Amino acid sequence: MLLIGLLQTTAAPPAPAVPPPVRGDRFQIIVPQGWRTLREGSSVLLEHSSGASLLIQRTDRASNLSEFARRQAERIMMPLGFARLGEPLQFKDTHDEWVQYEIRGNRLDDRHRLLYKLLRRDAAFFESIYEAPEDQFELLLTEAQSIASSVQAIIEAPPLPRRRLR
């Protein structure tokens, strides 16, 4: 009995805890430490302790991914002062296709950078918008892209019909 207890205490340390997924409208993402969830529901809004933000939402099907991404990026940059839209980056493989734009502009007196990304994963479409002050943008860019890339569609079965009690 003592030997079993000794073996249990000398076994490999437990694996680090994986954060539970955060759910949005028929999708979920993995959110690492340092980010807190401000809103869950039709979209997920995250904020980092540094002030950076990340919005992820499922969107309607885009018939032309490039065209839809361009219109959305232009819409997002409209409220920014002196905004500039970068050239699109595009990627496609058997499961994913995405288009992204980098946007630079001002929020009041602060220079900000945004990364807009429209992702088609299998049959679902997701938008992500990462925003941070210009001098801090690169610090969390890889982490924000990792969060956005962790998106997984959730297929929910329709609710079962209720039986009437007599």
Structure description:
The protein has 166 residues and is of the alpha+beta class. The protein has a domain of 116 residues: Protein Transport Mog1p, Chain A. The protein contains 3 helices and 11 strands. Strands 3, 4, 5, 6, 7, 8, 9 and 10 form an 8-stranded antiparallel β-sheet that branches. The chain has a 3-stranded antiparallel β-sheet with strand order 1-2-11. Strand 3 and strand 4 form a beta hairpin. The radius of gyration is 21 Å and the shape is globular. The N terminus is likely disordered.
What is the gist of this entry?
21% of the residues lie in helices and 42% in strands. With 166 residues, the protein is an alpha+beta fold. The model is unreliable at 2-7 (pLDDT under 50).
Give structural attributes.
11 strands, 166 residues, alpha+beta, eight-stranded antiparallel beta sheet, Protein Transport Mog1p, Chain A
